[in-house]
Amino acid sequence: MDALIHARGLVKRFDDFTAVDGIDIDVRRGEAFGFLGPNGAGKSSTMRMIGCVSPPTGGVLRILGLDPRRDGPAIRAKLGVCPQLDNLDIELTVRENLTTYARFFGIARRVARQRAAELLEFVQLTERADSKVEPLSGGMKRRLTIARALVNEPEMVLLDEPTTGLDPQARHLVWERLFRLKQQGVTLVLTTHYMDEAEQLCDRLVVMDGGKIVAAGSPRALIERYSTREVVELRFATGSQQAYAEKLAGLGERLEVLPDRILLYVADGDEAVAEVQRRSLDPAGVLVRRSSLEDVFLHLTGRTLVD
């Protein structure tokens, strides 16, 4: 399988708190692998162990075939890291952020300048090469952070919430760049709160909750296993949604009542809507959509906000 990340029974504890509770992971070379989960699920603690900045408490962990407890510097030299918050040097120009960072890896100045030029073209920032960082838009800063993570030509790139806070256009441009990286054989490991991002980018992913892996597989496989082909959203203008839910009993594989609507998880949305009408119900709004990874995520981890 040529696993670049191999974990068995991986544990991370902070005093009496267990952040990661005995998880098993294999990330294959050249794939995009995602960690999903609510706040406090253990995603960040796992990524920090993979990035060799936080030692495991227990279990087996191998990164690029090496032991992070013993070979941390050697592993970090082969990784690219894009943190959740941009930590660019605002006193330097866009180009200098790359060439200066390259020196930390012992890359010669001539090679660093050439590599910086190639990366700025890759993330579409060539025209801003001599600009200072501060006036750049959020999307530009994010693309520069990704370019900096690639300056050492890493075998694997760790991306923590790569598009958080970006507008839709900037998000899609980042997605395009990351997809091109995967096409070039770079292994991507990411965390994200955007379910559409996970569906777009990830070949496989795990859903974590309470420090454990509660589901694993490709986005499509998870949808097929934990949800239905389609979801019908019904909104009733008057009265309690719960009262209408009782009249919908037995319709679909699963029914979920929310404060403003009812969700029916069904194989055939149009047939379900026809059955709603046959039961003499008249919803104010009807939406039939395909089931998504977000449906799976909320089903597995719940809708309660975790701080």
UniProtKB/TrEMBL annotation:
<protein>
    <submittedName>
        <fullName>ABC transporter</fullName>
    </submittedName>
</protein>
<dbReference type="Pfam" id="PF00005">
    <property type="entry name" value="ABC_tran"/>
</dbReference>
<dbReference type="InterPro" id="IPR003593">
    <property type="entry name" value="AAA+_ATPase"/>
</dbReference>
<dbReference type="GO" id="GO:0046677">
    <property type="term" value="P:response to antibiotic"/>
</dbReference>
<comment type="similarity">
    <text>Belongs to the ABC transporter superfamily.</text>
</comment>
<dbReference type="InterPro" id="IPR017871">
    <property type="entry name" value="ABC_transporter-like_CS"/>
</dbReference>
<dbReference type="GO" id="GO:0016887">
    <property type="term" value="F:ATP hydrolysis activity"/>
</dbReference>
<dbReference type="GO" id="GO:0005524">
    <property type="term" value="F:ATP binding"/>
</dbReference>
<keyword id="KW-0547">Nucleotide-binding</keyword>
<feature type="domain" description="ABC transporter">
    <location>
        <begin position="5"/>
        <end position="235"/>
    </location>
</feature>
<dbReference type="InterPro" id="IPR003439">
    <property type="entry name" value="ABC_transporter-like_ATP-bd"/>
</dbReference>
<keyword id="KW-1003">Cell membrane</keyword>
<dbReference type="InterPro" id="IPR027417">
    <property type="entry name" value="P-loop_NTPase"/>
</dbReference>
<dbReference type="InterPro" id="IPR050763">
    <property type="entry name" value="ABC_transporter_ATP-binding"/>
</dbReference>
<keyword id="KW-0046">Antibiotic resistance</keyword>
<keyword id="KW-1278">Translocase</keyword>
<keyword id="KW-0067">ATP-binding</keyword>
<keyword id="KW-0813">Transport</keyword>
<keyword id="KW-0472">Membrane</keyword>
<dbReference type="GO" id="GO:0005886">
    <property type="term" value="C:plasma membrane"/>
</dbReference>
